[in-house]
Amino acid sequence: MHAPEPQRTRAHSNLTMAVLALAGIALFVVFCALGWWQVERRTWKLALMERVEQRLHAAPVPLPARAQWPGVDAAGFEYQPVQAEGHWLASKTVLTQATTALGAGFWVMTPLQLDGGGQVLVNRGFIPQAQRAQWAAGGPGMQEGEAVQLQGLLRMSEPGGGFLRRNDPGAQRWHSRDVAAIAQAQGLEAAAPFFIDAGIPDANAPAPMDAETSTTTGPWPRPGLTVVRFHNSHLVYAITWFGLAAMVAAAAAYVARYELRLRATLRSR
Fold first, then answer.
1. How does pLDDT run across 46-99, given as a tens digit for each residue?
2. Number of neighbours of residue 97 by Cβ within 10 angstroms
C-alpha cells in the first residue's frame, strides 16, 4: 500500500490578498479614529469636571434672567449655585422617583413663581416612600403663594423617564425630572427649561446615617442630596480601540509574512 500523497498547499490569489488588505486598512483606520475620539472626549470631560468643581465652590449668583433661558446649557450653567425669590405654587407639586443614599423615595418638585416673571421648578428635597401621600399636594404647613428666598444648584432637565420606564403625565408617574413634560402637565406656561436642586451640598459634611435610621428622623423634604458625579471611562475605551487597531496591524503583518514565505516555498519547488 502506498501512503496518501499530501495535499498541495496553494497561496491566496492577488485579488483575495487585496480584499484582505483593504479590509485590514479600513478596520485599522476606524479603530484608530474611535480611539482618538475617546482621547478627545476624555480631554473634554476632564475640563468639564474642573469647571463644575470651580462652580460648586463659587458664591450663589442670581438665577439667569428670563431672556437668557434659551441659552442655558449644561456646559455653561449646570451645577452653578444660584439664588431665586418668588412664591410657591404648592398645588402644582409633583413627586418624581428618586434613589439616594437614604434609600428609595421621591423628590418633591414644587414650582416657584419668580418675582421677575416666569416659573422655575424647585427640587425641594427627598422624602421616603412612606410619606408620598402627605407630600403630594405640597406638604404639611406649605401655603399656596408663600413667599420664599432660596439657594441651590441649577440643574438641566431629565427628559423621557428612567431606565426602561417612561414618564406617564396622565397618571402623575414621574421617573425623571422632565421639566418640559411636568410644566405642560401642571399648566406652567412660562417655565424655565431647567430646575433648581434646593440646598448646596457640603463636601465636608459627615457621611449620612444608614438609610433605615435616616428615613425615620427627617426633616423632610431633605435638601442638599445632589450627587455630582461624572462617568469618565474614556481612557479605558481609548486603550481598547487602540488595542484593537494594534491587533489588526499584528494580524496583517502575520498574514503578509506567512503569504510571502508560502509563495517563496512554492516558487522553489
1. 887 787 777 778 889 999 999 999 999 988 898 899 999 999 998 899 999 888
2. 18
List, as one string, the DSSP characters of 66-113.
GGGGGG--HHHHTT-EEEEEEEE-GGG-EEEEEEETTEEEEEEEEEEE
Distance between CA atoms of residues 47 and 55, nearest Å? 12
Closest CA to 176 of 165, 188, 191: 165
Q: What is the mean pLDDT of the chain?
A: 83
Report the pLDDT averaged over residues 141-149.
79
Give me 223's grid cell: 435638601
> Are the C-beta atoms of residues 127 and 247 closer than 8 Å to each other?
no
The residue that leads in pLDDT, 49 or 6, is 49
- Predicted local distance difference test score (pLDDT) of residue 6: 46
CB 76 within 8 A of CB 54: no
Does the pLDDT of residue 2 top 60, yes or no? no
Q: End-to-end alpha-carbon separation of the chain, Å?
A: 26
Q: Please enumerate in sequence order all residues whose Cβ is within 8 A of that of 225, keeping only pairs 6 or more positions apart, or say none.
A: 100, 101, 102, 125, 126, 199, 201
Find the helix or strand (DSSP H, E) in which 128 lies.
strand 119-128
Question: Cell 479603530 belongs to which residue?
Answer: 31
As a whole number of angstroms, the distance between CA 137 and CA 139 comes to 6
Q: How far is CA 213 from its chain centroid?
A: 30
In one-letter notation, the amino acid at residue 268 is S
User: Which residue, among 53, 139, 132, has the nearest Cα to 88 in the 3D structure?
Assistant: 139
